[in-house]
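Give me structure tokens for this 129-residue protein.
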Amino acid sequence: MKNIALFIAVFILGLSLAQPVQASDFKKPLHFAPGKNSAIVSAAVVRGDRDIYLIKAHAKQVMTINISTLEENAVFSLFEPKAKNAVRGTEEGKDITTWSGSLSKTGLYRIIVGGTRGNASYKLQVTVK
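Here you go.
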């Protein structure tokens, strides 16, 4: 009887110390091959997770981003270096699949990819000129 009570006490203590499972974000630097100004990434994002790509770029360069999926269920947002808010027009909820514009800052840009419904296999193409 004492063993059962001890087991239950340890089990309850273990539950109280357990960390909740949370969606994880995948971060990866995005590099261009030598002599190239674009890169294509084929990947998949699990529902609730985000893939975050980091790319170094300079002010006055033009960045073009396209994302494509078979089920049209992956979108992205773009963040300037150290910015907390997405670049205008790429905010969450806009469901952006293509964007092009002149960059206003030099530094590490973030492209955040997420699914709009379910898991999403996607192809992300980024060009910087």
